[in-house]
User: Fold this.
Amino acid sequence: MIELRNVSKIYPGLPPVEALKEVSLHIEKGEIFGVVGVSGAGKSSLIRSVNLLEKPTTGEVIVDGVSLASLSPEGLRDARRKIGMIFQQFNLLESKTVFHNVALPLYLSGKKKKDVEEKVMELLTFVGLADRAEHYPGQLSGGQKQRVGIARALATDPHILLCDEATSALDPDTTKSVLDLLQRINTDYGITILLITHEMDVVRNLCHQVAVLDQGSIVEQGTVYDVFTNPKSQTAQRFVRTIFQQELPKSIQNSLKEQDHVLRVVFTGENANQPLIAETIKKFQVNINILQGNITELQGKPFGDLLISIHGSTKEIAEVIHYLQEKQVSVEEVKSLGF
Amino acid sequence: MAFDWAVFWPQLIDGILATLIMVIVSLAFSVLIGFPLGVVLVVTRPGHILENRIVYAILSTIINIFRSVPFIILLVAIIPFTRLVTGSSIGTAAAIVPLIFYAAPYVGRLVENSLLEVEPGVVEAAQAMGATPWQIIWRFLLPEALSSLFLAATIATIGLIGASAMAGAVGGGGLGDLAITYGYNQFEVRVIVITVVLLIIFVQLVQSLGNYLAQVVRRK
Ligand SMILES: Nc1ncnc2c1ncn2[C@@H]1O[C@H](COP(=O)(O)OP(=O)(O)O)[C@@H](O)[C@H]1O
Ligand SMILES: [Mg+2]
Assistant:
């Protein structure tokens, strides 16, 4: 559906900025694909290359089997009508009503007035703003503005929706409701969604697949479940920790004794439901203290991430680690607690 | 020689009419020329929808040249051209030509500024939905800049009222001409006061109208 082949983007200047380095991505039809990265990682450059708002310096962008760079200006405009886009700052026309904003893409393609009216009201109803049709964006909240942005992006019946930090300007509650709306767009209309964000929570709540972008390169990619439960790159690990592991409170760090060993224990799938910690304590007669824990669900599968301290001899601890690993639990000794 | 009010009043009416004609006609032509100039200046900027360094540099330079010539010099410098167009170098019609030369580049810059105030994200959204450059200009840039454009027009009009009074000094007719003929040459202070008060009223009216229109279309 969307394919990026070795896409590089260099912004000329002194010095030139290499925003994307040989990025390759494959996004399947119907998928919700998230790209996560810190500010400046190249996320906007990446998403903007998908509808050629930004021309890649090298590499190819293929959407629905067509290489966008090969199209005429006219052809590119037609292709863009099938790729909706929403923005962090909404980018609505402040001088026009909600109705007019949503109708604009339809006016552009010369639709009849009556058809436009029907379509716009249908879209506004879908995003829950039918009663705001005659309001101006200045009279709406951030969440409502983004709903208008979404309705506008859907007006031309796109196959793809690009979301550039669509919830980054919104508070958590509003973010949740906009994410629910995006979810519905995906399930009800089968629209493929590519979103970029610096918030791991957005990826966790919405995405099927995720790619981690770091300084213009994709350092990790996979299903949300795999990347969250077993992040391999340092960048991915840091992102996963932003939601699953906070730094241990100082008081807890200080209460740890010299001979305490701290382990990170990650349960996935089946074993997340088993009382493994309790069994371990019984079996080995060691003291286990749960310092921090997070048991949650990812894409409908349970997942637990615990930080425990064990008091015992080196031999006992080695046995415990061995036992847990036998149960298909990932165990890792944590050396420094400062993360 | 005593001041003859009976002669003066009809001349004042003529002066008002001449000023109005000079301002309105030169404003109309200046907008006709300056508006497209301003639009082209914006869309040919680096990174904009019709980026073209050469067109931008040429237009920008020409505008700067005209803008750096003081009006009173411009008035004299283009007399040959004025004569060619209007058949004369004095009179109201002849004053309109230098006024256009003066105001059109100015309007160009004002329009450029107004359009630059539009959020770049709006243009980006327009491109993302497949709008043509023409559609981006008419359906996105101009409506979003409308309020600011009304204020720009106000500034241009007031500038033209001032300049038209100066054009009067070289025989262009209008209120400036009256002020010079009676007030300066014949030391008739009352005429100066009357013309200045009238000019102030014009400026106030234009400013209020401009503010009102800008307010009506602003939706923020
Ligand atoms: N138009 C531009 N000109 C020059 N440098 C740019 C431009 N756009 C982005 N950059 C640079 O490219 C890098 C990646 O930017 P961006 O894609 O916006 O990252 P992100 O969206 O992840 O914050 C940054 O270093 C940024 O400063
Ligand atoms: Mg960005």
Summary: Residues 122 and 128 of chain B are 10 Å apart (CA to CA). The mean pLDDT of chain B is 92. Chain B touches chain A at residues 119, 121-122, 124-125, 127-132, 135, 139-140, 143-144, 146-147, 217-220 (CB under 8 Å).
